[in-house]
Amino acid sequence: MVVVGGGPCGLAASLRLANNGLRVALIEKGSYHQPRVGEHLPASAMGVLQELGISAICSDATSHLHCAGVVSWWGNEHTPHELDYFYHPFGHGLNLTRPQFDRQFADHVRRQGTLILEHAKIQQLSWTGAAWRIDIVTEEVRCCMETQFVLDASGKSASIARTQASHIIAWDAQIALIRNYHSCAGPINDRTTHIVIEPCEIGWWYFAPLADGQGVCMFITDPDLIDLRKHSIENSWRVVLGKTRAVAPILQSFATMSKPVVCSARSQRLDHFFGDRWLAIGDAAMAFDPLSSQGITKGLRHGWMAGQVVIRYLSGETAAIAHFSQDLEAIFSEYIATRAGYYATEQRWADSLFWRRRHTSTGKR
Questions:
Q1: Is the sign of the CA dihedral 19, 25, 31, 36 positive or negative?
Q2: Does residue 257 form part of some domain?
Q3: What is the pTM of this model?
Q4: What CATH number should be reported for the domain holding residue 156?
Q5: How many whole angstroms separate alpha carbon 150 and alpha carbon 1?
Q6: Does a structural domain hold residue 247?
Q7: Which of 3, 36, 179, 321 shows its CA 20 to 30 Å from the CA of 261?
Q8: Residues 271, 247 share a domain
């Protein structure tokens, strides 16, 4: 069994497959020491960690911060909305330190018997009539594998699905400017363990405190609404940040920072999620707006469920993959409706192009 993509989704799928006695190879194009995007697990995700049996790797408070909840200025500049995780059965969420979480998770998956190839590139993928043949090259070796099934957990690139004539449908062109902050210099206050969300005229801001006095800040916008040229991006960040009421004061407590990194934050999905002995899962199948705070949680859930679905399929339940695909269709439809409803609640900048696009959007681009 081959899983392509070594993020939380691919690791969760590999874990379930290995726990059920299958020989699994996981192909990861990068390594578990490179920067990775995403950190927040809401309180509802704590049960997912327990089901996967990986709660212990998140228990070190020096590595992963217990998150108290979310403070959001969405739709109201005077009184924030507060979601307090204290009232959830688990009592807290988690702000993960990446890529340390992925590295710890990968080590756990290895101990269950999965072969993980890092810095691995698929040179050729072909169906022989009896099995998939996959030619792989890493920094150390070249090898060939044969497998009865391929799981595509390669992220937004959907690298396997696209070779099988599946196409990406984008709902928007949204981007995220992401910046890491270090060395918390100011006084600790009651917001230091809360996620903070603040809208503005051309997008919205997100701040997450991390363990060891660090933090990550993200600005969501459309690429045509901000100057992204290399010599201008620093000033663009500073100008838009200066108009915030909640996020800017928080960042004054941080002494050092990285340069802004730009990455895609668009909503997207594949036109079909599966084919003959392959299945796309996680962000390869569908990617959500960061506003949902479901990126890592979705990946863990999709991977864990898909592992069981593949086991059923290989055991002769041939309709299992199609039924799972129908579940994915329903998940995405619900997400699109929820996203539209949430953006509709922010009306302060109704004439702004960013908000107008989200208030009138009816589907793909």
A1: negative
A2: yes
A3: 0.94
A4: 3.50.50.60
A5: 7
A6: yes
A7: 3
A8: no
Question: In the block, which residue shows the tokens 């995780």?
Answer: 85
What is the domain extent for residue 255?
Answer: 175-264
Cis peptide preceding 290, ω within 30 of 0: no
pLDDT tens string 82-109? 999 998 999 999 999 999 999 999 999 9
Segment 330-352, tens digit of pLDDT: 999 999 999 999 999 999 999 99
- pLDDT tens-place string over residues 208-217: 999 988 999 9
Token readout for 60 is 């070190």
Q: Are residue 108 and residue 134 in the same domain, yes or no? A: yes
Cα dihedral across residues 235, 238, 240, 242: positive or negative = negative
Q: Establish if 128 belongs to a structural domain.
A: yes
Which amino acid does the sequence have at 229?
A: R
Same domain, 28 and 107: yes
In-domain check, residue 282: yes
**Residue 215 is part of a domain; what is its CATH number?**
3.30.70
Total domain count for the chain?
A: 2
The string of DSSP codes covering 30-82 is S-TTS-----EE-GGGHHHHHHHT-GGGG--TTTSEEE-EEEE-TT-SSS-EE
Q: What is the pLDDT of residues 284-325, one digit of tens each?
A: 999 999 999 889 999 999 999 999 999 999 999 999 999 999
What amino acid is encoded at 260 in this protein?
P
Q: What is the DSSP letter of 246?
A: S
Assess contact for 270 and 169: CB atoms under 8 A: yes
Instruction: State residue 290 phi and psi, 5-degree precision.
Output: -55, -20
Alpha helix (H) residue ranges in 177-319: 233-241, 247-251, 295-314
* Measured distance CA(48)–CA(312) in Å, rounded: 21
Please give the helix or strand (H or E) that residue 26 lies within, else none.
strand 25-27
Element (H, E) at 136: strand 132-137
